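Question (not urgent): is this output format expected?
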Amino acid sequence: MNISKKQILGIGLMAAIASVQANAKDFSYTYVEGGFADVDIDNNDADYIYGGGSLALDRNIFIRGSLGNLDVDRVSEFDTVSIGVGHPMKMSERSDLVLAMDYSFAEADRGNADIDTLTGSAMTRTWLTNNVEGNLMGGLAYQDADYGGSDTGAIVGAGIRVYVVPQFSVGANISRSFIGDLDTDEIGLNARLQF
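Got this back:
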């Protein structure tokens, strides 16, 4: 029986595709993480450090939260608290769609500048390879600031996560928010331990 080079190539390609599909795995929604970000708030430079985590209550719902500190040069320092709930849905063997609602509070160390924010978002989690995850996010936020009243706006972002081992990963993300007249850009790095 003669097998041509095209047939061998076709068999090899099918085996590679089957191997990728066989290695597709579920995303974890139970983890702890910490990170930092460089933030630009209407041309004011800021540094953000945080720690937090997520707990899957079952396959359809998780809760998450974080504590952090935002140090805005020449302006103020804020202690931040965030808590939220999310609903992951499987879109394919390699992708999840995550719908979430988060509330965050930023308390200024001086002055009357506290900020409350409620955000509804949708994010995709996709296996780009067997150990690299890609994310795209979009959302709407309602913000109430002591110093400037309330406003709404959009948030968009993207990220990538590399799994060094199955339980430990490092990630990088960028995001931009357009809330009222206040535009915010963020570039961050984080480390995550999942369970």
